[in-house]
Write a structure and sequence with these properties.
The structure holds two protein chains of two kinds. Chain A is α/β, with parallel strands linked by helices. Chain A has a domain of 183 residues: HORMA domain (Cell Cycle, Spindle Assembly Checkpoint Protein, Chain A). Helices cover 27% and strands 11% of the residues of chain A. A six-stranded mixed β-sheet of chain A has the order 4-5-2-1-3-7. Chain A starts with 6 loop residues before the first helix and ends with a helix. Chain B has four helices and twelve strands; from the N terminus they run E-E-H-E-E-E-E-E-H-E-E-H-H-E-E-E. The chains are: A alpha/beta, B alpha+beta. The interface between A and B is large, with 54 and 48 residues.
C-alpha cells in the first residue's frame, strides 16, 4: 500500500495526521470551555500555524492528547476519541458527545500529500470549528459554571458509544482521502438530555435514566434536533454567588501562549480514564465547594501536570455579566504564535461574552429547575423559568385575570387549590373582614391563616394586621368637624406664616441651590 | 422547510470541472428581526470554508499562505452561535449586503419572501475589446420567508426553532464543503486576482459576489441585484 508513496511524502503525511489530530482535540476542547473563542488573522505567515489556521494550543490538552496517542497515529481500528461529558454539582455525570477521528482502508493514491491533503485537512478543521458550535453540548458548555461543568477525556482505540444513551445522533464533519487511508471525523451526540438527579443515599447508579423515569423530575426531555436546552433538577440554586471562571489577566510572557493553565482547569476538567462515574472525589468537592477559590486547579487534571497556578477568582460565567476587558477583538495587540518562544506584550485571551443577550442571571438560570413534583410538571420548557419558580406568589400565578380574587393580601387562601372559606366574608359589603367571628354568630369560627404566616410564632400577628388594615381608623384631618375648626385657624394664621416665610427667603433659595 | 438542493446549473455532466457550477439552495423561515443574523450566519459559514490566508509569492513560483483567525459570534435574536473568519473588512462587506437585503425585504411590495445568493466565480481574461468573463463555479442561494408573530411566546419559540434550523443548515453546508468537489486550482501570481479577492488585508476569500431578489406579493421576482448575477455564463 505504501510502495507508491515516497518516504518524504510518508513522513509529511504522518506529520500532517499527527498535528491534525492534536489540532482537532484543541478545537473540540476549546469549544467546550464555555467561552467565545477569538483568534486573529495574520496576513504574514508565521510558519507555525498548522493548516493556516489560528488555533491556539492549550498545553494540558496537547499533553493529554499526546499521552493518549502514545506515539501512535489514528489508523484502521485505532481511533482517537474525545469524550465530552457533563458533571453536576451533585455528582451526577453524563456523556454528551464522542468526537471520533478515524481512519479507514479506502486509499486515494493519486492525491498529492503536501498540497491537496494539507488543504483538505485545513478545510476539515474549519468544518470542525463550525460543527462544534451546533451540537447540543455547545450551549450547555456556554452555560456551565456553578451548577455543572463540562469535562473531556481523550482515549485511543475503539470507539465507545454506549454511554450516550439511546437514540444518539451522529454528524459527520468530513473526510479526507490520503494514500494510506481515508480520515473521517465525526461526532456522536446524546439527544436525550433528560436527567435524573441522584441524591446522596438514594440510587446512585441511575446516571442515564430513561425518558419515562425522568419525567417525574424534569419538566421536559429534549427534542431530537440540536441544540436544545438543558433541564436538570437541582436542589439549590445559588444565584447570588457568581460561578467560578477563569482569570484572564495572567500574562504568560515567555512561551507566547495565550491560554493559561487555569483556562482549561477551572471549568473544563480533564477526567482521566481511570475516573469512574461515581468517583467524585478527585476534584469534585474542590470544584463546587464555594467555587474554585480553594482549589488547586491541577487537582482536577491528570497527574504529572507541571506548574502551579494561582487560585482562580470568581468571575461570572458567560451569560451572567459582561466583562468588557476580556473581549477579544482582532485589534488586540499580538498575533499568537504557538511555537515561537517570543514574549508577547499582551496575551490574547479567550473572549467572554459581553453581549447583552445574556445580560441577566435569568439566562444562566434558565437551565435550572428545582421542583421534583409540582405545579410545573406539565408546563412546556419555554414557560418554566426561574422567574416562575422564584416569585413568591408562584403558587397563585393567576389563571384568571381578576386581580382582587388573586391578590393574597385580600384573599389569602389556605392552600393553592382551595379558596379561603372566608373569601365571601372578606368581600361582602359592610363586613369587617374579620375571620375569628367577632361579629356574626351564624358564622363558623375558623382560624384566619394569612399566607406566609406561621401559627407557632406570634399567632395571628399577621392576621391582626390584616384586620386592622381592612378597617383603618379615619384620619383625623378628614373628619368634618375637626377639619372645619382647623380650617378656620389655618386661615387666620396664614398671614403670619407668610411673613415668616418671606423673611427666610434667602435660606430657601440657598437650599434650592444645593439641590441643583 | 426544504433542505439543500443540489443541481448543476450549467454544462453537461462529464464536462471539465471548470464548466460546472454547483448550486446549493437553503430555505429558512424567520422573523423580521432575525433575517440579518440568519443570513450572516450562513454566509459567514460558507465564507469560512472559502477563504484562505493571504498568499505571499516567492521566487521559484512557490507561495506561502497567511493565517486565518476565527471568532465566535452570538446571535441576539436567535438561540444560535456561529464561527466566522476574523476579518472586519469581510464582516462589513457581508453586513452591508445583508442590510440591503433586509431593507428590501421590508420594503413595500414585498410579501416577506426573497432570496440572497452568494456566488463564487473565476475571472477569465478576454482580449480587447471584450471584457473579462466571470465564470461561476459555486452558487449558494438562501431563500427567506419572513413570518410575523403575534406575541412574545411565539417569538421565544421562534428563537429556538430558528436556532435549530440554522444548526441543520450549518451541517448541510459542511456536508457540501467536504465533498471536495471542484475548486479552482491554485493560481500563479499573475492569475491570483482571477481566482481570489485579494483586496482584503488579512484574508483571501475566493472571488465572490452577492445578489438578492425580492418576491413581491404577486409572486413575481423583482430582481434587485447588487451586481449582475450571471446564470448562463458557461455557454462557451
Amino acid at each position: 500500500m505504501d510502495t507508491d508513496l515516497s518516504s518524504q511524502d510518508r513522513k509529511d503525511l504522518d506529520k500532517f495526521i499527527k498535528f491534525f489530530a492534536l489540532k482537532t482535540v484543541q478545537v473540540i476542547v476549546q469549544a467546550r470551555l464555555g467561552e467565545k473563542i477569538c483568534t486573529r488573522s495574520s496576513s504574514s505567515p508565521t510558519g507555525s500555524d498548522w493548516f493556516n489556521l489560528a488555533i491556539k494550543d492549550i498545553p494540558e490538552v496537547t499533553h493529554e492528547a499526546k499521552k493518549a496517542l502514545a506515539g501512535q497515529l489514528p489508523a484502521v481500528g485505532r481511533s482517537m476519541c474525545v469524550e465530552i461529558s457533563l458533571k453536576t454539582s451533585e455528582g451526577d455525570s453524563m456523556e454528551l458527545e464522542i468526537w471520533c477521528l478515524e481512519m479507514n482502508e479506502k486509499c486515494d493514491k493519486e492525491i498529492k500529500v503536501s498540497y491537496t491533503v494539507y488543504n483538505r485537512l485545513s478545510l476539515l478543521l474549519k468544518s470542525l470549528l463550525a460543527i462544534t458550535r451546533v451540537t447540543p453540548a455547545y450551549r450547555l458548555s456556554r452555560k456551565q459554571g456553578h451548577e455543572y461543568v463540562i469535562l473531556y477525556r481523550i482515549y485511543f482505540g475503539e470507539v465507545q458509544l454506549s454511554g450516550l444513551g439511546e437514540g444518539f445522533q451522529t454528524v459527520r464533519v468530513g473526510t479526507v482521502g490520503t494514500p494510506v487511508g481515508t480520515i473521517t471525523l465525526s461526532c456522536a451526540y446524546r439527544i436525550n438530555l433528560a436527567f435524573m438527579s441522584t441524591r446522596a443515599g438514594e440510587d446512585n447508579g441511575a446516571v442515564y435514566p430513561s425518558v419515562e423515569d425522568s419525567q417525574e423530575v424534569c419538566t421536559t426531555s429534549f427534542s431530537t434536533s440540536p441544540p436544545s436546552q438543558c433541564v436538570f433538577t437541582v436542589t439549590k440554586a445559588h444565584f447570588q454567588t457568581p460561578p467560578p471562571v477563569v482569570t484572564d489577566t495572567l500574562k504568560v510572557p515567555v512561551m507566547g501562549l495565550a491560554f493559561s493553565h487555569q483556562l482549561s482547569s477551572s471549568r473544563l476538567s480533564y477526567q482521566p480514564a481511570a475516573l469512574g462515574v461515581g468517583s467524585a472525589d478527585m476534584g469534585y468537592p474542590v470544584l463546587f465547594a464555594g467555587g474554585l477559590h480553594a482549589a488547586h486547579p491541577h487537582q482536577l487534571i491528570g497527574p504529572g501536570k507541571e506548574g502551579g497556578v494561582p487560585p482562580i477568582p470568581s468571575q461570572p460565567a458567560h451569560g451572567t455579566q459582561a466583562d468588557q476587558e476580556r473581549m477579544c477583538t482582532p485589534l488586540d495587540g499580538v498575533h499568537y504564535s504557538a511555537a515561537t518562544p517570543s514574549s508577547s506584550e499582551d496575551t490574547e485571551t479567550v473572549s467572554n461574552s459581553s453581549e447583552g443577550k445574556c445580560g441577566s442571571p435569568h439566562d444562566l438560570l434558565e437551565t435550572i429547575f428545582v421542583r421534583k413534583v409540582g405545579a410545573f410538571v406539565n408546563k412546556p420548557i419555554n414557560q418554566v423559568t426561574m422567574a416562575n419558580l422564584d416569585i413568591p406568589f408562584a403558587m397563585f400565578a393567576p389563571k384568571n385575570v381578576e386581580l382582587e380574587d388573586n391578590d393574597p393580601m385580600v384573599n389569602p387562601p389556605d392552600s393553592p387549590e382551595t379558596e379561603s372559606p372566608l373569601q365571601g366574608s372578606l368581600h361582602s359589603e359592610g363586613s369587617s373582614g374579620s375571620s375569628t367571628g367577632n361579629t356574626h354568630d351564624d358564622f363558623v369560627m375558623i382560624d384566619f391563616k394569612p399566607a406566609f404566616s406561621k401559627d407557632d410564632i406570634l399567632p395571628m400577628d399577621l392576621g391582626t394586621f390584616y384586620r386592622e388594615f381592612q378597617n383603618p381608623p379615619q384620619l383625623s384631618s378628614l373628619s368634618i368637624d375637626i377639619g372645619a375648626q382647623s380650617m378656620a385657624e389655618d386661615l387666620d394664621s396664614l398671614p403670619e406664616k407668610l411673613a415668616v416665610h418671606e423673611k427666610n427667603v434667602k435660606e430657601f433659595d440657598a437650599f434650592v441651590e444645593t439641590l441643583q | 422547510m426544504v433542505g439543500p438542493g443540489r443541481t448543476r446549473c450549467c454544462g453537461p455532466p462529464g464536462a471539465a470541472p471548470a464548466m460546472n457550477c454547483r448550486a446549493e439552495v437553503l430555505e429558512v423561515s424567520v422573523e423580521g428581526r432575525q433575517v440579518e443574523e440568519a443570513m450572516l450566519a450562513v454566509l459567514h459559514t460558507v465564507l469560512l470554508h472559502r477563504s484562505t490566508g493571504k498568499f505571499h509569492y516567492k521566487k521559484e513560483g512557490t507561495y506561502s499562505i497567511g493565517t486565518v483567525g476565527t471568532q465566535d459570534v452570538d446571535c441576539d435574536f436567535i438561540d444560535f452561535a456561529y464561527v466566522r473568519v476574523s476579518s472586519e473588512e469581510l464582516d462589513r462587506a457581508l453586513r452591508k449586503a445583508v442590510g440591503e437585503f433586509k431593507d428590501a425585504l421590508r420594503g413595500s411590495g414585498s410579501d416577506g419572501m426573497g432570496q440572497i445568493s452568494l456566488e463564487f466565480y473565476q475571472k477569465k481574461k478576454s482580449r480587447w475589446p471584450f471584457s473579462d468573463e466571470c465564470i461561476p463555479w459555486e452558487l449558494w442561494t438562501i431563500k427567506v420567508n419572513v413570518v410575523n408573530l403575534a406575541n412574545e411566546q411565539e417569538r421565544q419559540i421562534c428563537r429556538e426553532k430558528v436556532g435549530e434550523k440554522l444548526c441543520e443548515k450549518i451541517i448541510n453546508i459542511v456536508e457540501v464543503m467536504n465533498r471536495h468537489e471542484y475548486l479552482p486550482k491554485m493560481p500563479t501570481q499573475s492569475e491570483v486576482d482571477n481566482v481570489f479577492d485579494t483586496s482584503l488585508k488579512d484574508v483571501q476569500p475566493y472571488l465572490y459576489k452577492i445578489s438578492y431578489q425580492i418576491t413581491d406579493s404577486l409572486g413575481t421576482s423583482v430582481t434587485t441585484t447588487m451586481r449582475r448575477l450571471i446564470k448562463d455564463t458557461l455557454a462557451l
